[in-house]
Amino acid sequence: MNAAVLSVGSELLLGDLTDSNATWISARLRERGVRVVHHLAVADDVDAIVGSLRWLAARADLVVVGGGLGPTSDDLTREAVAAALGADLELREDLEEAIVARFAALGRPMAPRNRRQAFVPQGARTAPPVGTAPAFAVDLTVEGAQRPVRVIALPGVPWELHELWSTFVVPQLDELGVTGATVTRIVHVAGRGESDVASVVEPLVADEADVTLAFLAKQHGIQVRLTATGRDPDDASARAQPAVDRVVAALGASVSGLDDADLETTVVRLLADRGQRVATAESATGGSIAARLARVPRASAVLVGGLVVYRDEAKSLLAGLDADLVAREGAVSEAVTRALALAVRARTGADWGLAVTGVAGPGPVDDLPVGTVFWALAAPDGTCEVHGRVVPGDRPSVIARLGSAALDLLRRRLLDG
Amino acid sequence: MNAAVLSVGSELLLGDLTDSNATWISARLRERGVRVVHHLAVADDVDAIVGSLRWLAARADLVVVGGGLGPTSDDLTREAVAAALGADLELREDLEEAIVARFAALGRPMAPRNRRQAFVPQGARTAPPVGTAPAFAVDLTVEGAQRPVRVIALPGVPWELHELWSTFVVPQLDELGVTGATVTRIVHVAGRGESDVASVVEPLVADEADVTLAFLAKQHGIQVRLTATGRDPDDASARAQPAVDRVVAALGASVSGLDDADLETTVVRLLADRGQRVATAESATGGSIAARLARVPRASAVLVGGLVVYRDEAKSLLAGLDADLVAREGAVSEAVTRALALAVRARTGADWGLAVTGVAGPGPVDDLPVGTVFWALAAPDGTCEVHGRVVPGDRPSVIARLGSAALDLLRRRLLDG
Q1: ipTM of this predicted complex?
Q2: Cβ contact B215:B165 at 8 Å
Q3: Strand extents, DSSP E, B231-350
Q4: Which residues on chain A are in Cβ contact (under 8 Å) with B35?
Q5: What is the pTM of this model?
Q6: Strands lying side by side in the sheet with B181-189
Q7: 8 A C-beta contact, residue A152 and residue A12
Q8: What does R_g of chain A's alpha carbons equal in angstroms?
Q9: Is B324 exposed, middle or buried (0-12, 13-18, 19+ CB in 10 A)?
Q10: pLDDT, mean over chain A
Q11: For residues B312 and B331, is the Cβ–Cβ distance under 8 A?
Q12: What distance in Å separates the CA atoms of residue A168 and residue A66, rounded to the nearest whole number?
């Protein structure tokens, strides 16, 4: 079964609002094994909505329309669906009573314009409003189609849409015979490029008819996404698992996490498993490595704390580095990064000391180009390793990439140990 | 002039990713007075992309395509645009050299598949890649249209897209004769609720026919958005300015920034104006306050550094607090927060010491409910003020709100001084 999402509202096209409803609806449909073929956004204009509905109806068995059901003159989904059907709007007294009762419950009088919301296309199936906007559904016959297309119109307010999904949409999916389920597994990969990862993974999945593969480059690494469809969620999971196992085995230590477990979550889990703790000393990242770890629930078991040694004087005052060392080697250097990792480990008694320095931009520092970064890890045995390179991107990207490089080094060493 | 945005990528339709590129592109086009008539998302499928392009080209003078320019087999925008044109793909040696050079600069070999990215539809205008994905533009003639439709294909990686917008798209908009302009001014408001802000602002703008008003509630505060249209950017700005001035005057110290200047940018600017510096001592926020400041370009002039005193032992080892004080008062307490602010100011020699403690969740700590937070500011005169409350929300919200409360306290004190 194919579906499409039509989002009605000029605010989307003005760039004032991002269409997270389309994302949410798509994720819900995918869980039921329904394939979403398009998202389309359209302005508050009857002709444009009718044209959009017709185009989508020629490509999908189900069109979910979000928005345009409010009480104001620019809420035109009711009119547009009626026009696409060639039907009139009719007043539903049960809906009118429900809207009046809704306002009474809030202790507010119903404005006359809210009566607009009790009109739906003739013959529509309706759901009582959870806010003040009733949802409705119709069957639209399009030229050349073998069967009518179900059009379900829902309010654009997210919590109303979410509630109506279970009470109004799910029963219709059951009735339309939607039985499948789709599961997407995510393999997070750190420290390797997209094309390198793809060249390893693609041959492993090429023969799996049930599994589709996608790659997503994120600031923090590459996501390999394996999507499988089955009779139900368990069946879909079972079909995905062999491919996930092969990908994880082939990528080995480059796998930084599975599904919801991103890099920092994985690091917190690995440290907790080993009963070990980390402390950080951050220059260019300004505390964001510690903050990424602190965002993981129960980080307090493994993150002792850290130093933000942003200016040169902080490297001396907070980490106790010799000011001469910083002056001689440069604040962004292998030697200073090593000294910071060793110092923060010693000062906190943590098992691991993780340190970074770098040039985040906008301008170069000490003739080092933007993106020059170093990261160092002081280990429980007292040794310290340092890495350096030039990473691409603007200031936020450099900060994110450097943090990920440092966390990934810790992750790999935890796997070794 | 009408435009449409076509976003290519199955991850959008699977509900894995929200299409914020379409929002960003629409806001940029609106600034130039271009009307966006549709956003359309399509899967990684040549036929579907071609069908989508044709449908949009019949409705717009400009189609901006985002995504599908990567090196993998599911990156199909090049092929689809060529198919829509009835043209072949051709290898551009200058692009191939630029991609090879890009990998060389990163110290990595170019994978053979990245050569795919040097192919563009015959006759296309191209832009050298800022990542590894070259952008290109073609003119597509559609049946019944009076003039060809400009199709501009950009990479989906946001920072690459943003950079190519100024260097590759804006010159084409100039050339296509786009002359109108819309300007949106943003007044950031901290520490007040949306309806309270609206009741102050709405009467101030009610008589301004040229200016439209919108309110947006964010985790870090309320945004008042004032949009004006004019002949060119200067004219539109001139129409917006009187309303902006009235709103800023009426909201007074609640205004935390204008336009791109969010709270942390404003704090960095205020500190720089006064030649003063700040240092942080963070427990619950784990370094994210320092990281927010460090994300602002030129933060190194005003952020000395800080301490992440996450576990109790870090409060003693790094900030020198008496372990008895922490045991007696509790790690999340007014007394400990005050001691941290004073300690980090003393240790770093900064003008201001900013400290926070709190219960971010998921569970309560020492019988304090999730959301219990304290923030303290040690001032240049040696005094220290502490504030506390219980904030709503989950772990990331508590961390964000506590950081904003602390930064807003510093901002207000800088305005006073």
Answers
A1: 0.72
A2: no
A3: 255-258, 278-282, 303-308
A4: 13
A5: 0.73
A6: B211-218, B221-230, B181-189, B255-258
A7: no
A8: 28
A9: exposed
A10: 92
A11: yes
A12: 14
Chain A: closest CA distance from residue B130 (Å): 9
> Which of B13, B28, B299 has the CB atom closest to A26's CB atom?
B13
By C-alpha distance, the chain A residue nearest B223 is: A16
Q: Are B291 and A293 an interchain contact pair (Cβ–Cβ within 8 Å)? A: no
Strand order in the sheet with A211-218: A211-218, A221-230, A181-189, A255-258
Work out the minimum CA distance from A295 to partner chain B, whole angstroms: 7
Mean pLDDT, rounded, for A70-83: 90
Pick B311's closest partner by Cβ from A22, A305, A397.
A305
Distance CA A322, CA B147 (A): 69
CA distance to partner chain B, nearest, from residue A36 (Å): 6
> Is pLDDT of B43 > 90?
yes
Task: Calculate the CA dihedral of residues A323, A324, A329, A331 and round it to 10 degrees.
Answer: 20
Burial class (CB in 10 A: 0-12, 13-18, 19+), B70: buried
As a residue count, chain A comes to 417
Contacts for A107 with CB less than 8 Å, ≥ 6 apart: none
Q: How far apart are CA A134 and CA B290, in angstroms?
A: 47
B365 pLDDT band, cuts 50/70/90, is: confident
CA angle centred on A299, ends A293 and A303, rounded to 5°:
75
B293 vs A contacts (CB less than 8 Å): 286
Specify burial of residue B238 (Cβ count, 10 A radius: 0-12, 13-18, 19+).
Answer: middle
**Residue A349: closest C-alpha in chain B:** B317
Interface test with A, best of B311, B313, B348, B395 (most A CBs within 10 A): B311
Q: How far apart are CA A67 and CA A157, in angstroms?
A: 8
8 Å CB contact of A199 and B111: yes
Query: 3-state class of B86 per DSSP?
Result: coil
Closest C-alpha to B361, from B390, B311, B395, B310:
B395
With cut-offs at 50, 70 and 90, classify the pLDDT of residue A221: confident
> Is A393–B159 a contact, with Cβ atoms under 8 angstroms apart?
yes
Q: Which chain A residues contact residue B314 at CB under 8 A?
A: 279, 304-306, 348
Measured CA to CA, the distance from residue B169 to residue B375 in angstroms comes to 45
pLDDT value of position A72: 78
